[in-house]
Formylmethanofuran dehydrogenase subunit E
Amino acid sequence: MEINKIGEVRSKYKEPVGPDEMRKTKSIIEVEAEYVDGLDQIEDYEYLQILFYFHKSEGYDLISKRRRGPERGLFTSRSPRRPTPIGITTVELLKREGNKLHVYGLDAIDGTPVIDIKPYASFMDQPTLSLQKKTPRYRINKLIKYQNQHDLLLKAGELHGHYCPYLALGVLAAADVLKRFGAENDGMEDLLAVVETNSCFSDGIQYTAGTTFGNNSLIYRDFGKTAVTFVKRGDSTKNLRYYFKDSDLIEREYPEAAELFEKVVADRNGSREEEEKMKELWQETAFKIIEADPDKLFKIEADVEIELPDYAPIFDNKQCSRCGEKLMAPKAVQKDDKVLCKECAESSYYQLDGSGIVEK
Ligand SMILES: [Zn+2]
Ligand SMILES: [Zn+2]
């Protein structure tokens, strides 16, 4: 077996500090002259996997206490102390200058020997991708199973576009109910969420429970309460309503975030800096709330009486005689002897928007 040093790390860290801290810095990988040609077109890649040798590591224990949690086996950890002390980290490639790769996120100290560099490719390196094609909610179901609310919130942000306390509350309620129901939602309308608000809360629920608008499994009641009832069709034991009872939580525990929210969002009167600061505080607050015990934040009631709509019917199409566009038959308007869409007929309709359901 032969292992070659192909380069060395340049970092401001001369001694190891925690990996989380080290990953927040830029460092440079200096590739040795004889290997530089191997970097040809590496700029095409945003992320690289860096394999390096923990040159200061000595010895190992097969079972030991980890940084987080109780004792466990060495191969369940990323400890530098191992029989073959090799580290692997995915880093962001910032730029290449000759034999130097400027990278972000490398948790290796100054002088660490680099033994290999590979491009990161999500289709190969993200092992759940093929499973996800078969079961779209594969990753989410796993996160719910292991009650990893932190990562659920992280992913919910992809849908919602920002992190905020109410998004976190929605994630928290949905992750809790799916654990209690022991259910994996396949997006076929069996699990329904009856939400009583159209705020950020509902996005946390849509993402986490998979009860979405497009699946007809998100039912909206125009009550304006931070509350949701989860119901499983055909199983009357699976029925729980969550009402956010600790409604002054944010003003009480996160006053600075609440104050900036008033100014920036409610009064639309904040400066650019205040808006940035608010986003930062809102994000911090969201990631604190997600750690909370749902029983403390919500009034959780079982067996609430709730009337459910039927499965969404599949309608025939009709064609509007004026614009020529097709529409679901029951939505068509008959005017004189013509079939029209509501828009062409200038008839009234309902709209769901920030104000709730409004008649237009
Ligand atoms: Zn939000
Ligand atoms: Zn029309």
In short: DSSP finds twelve helices and 19 strands in the chain. The mean pLDDT is 91. The CA atoms of residues 64 and 70 lie 8 Å apart. Residues 317-359 form one domain.
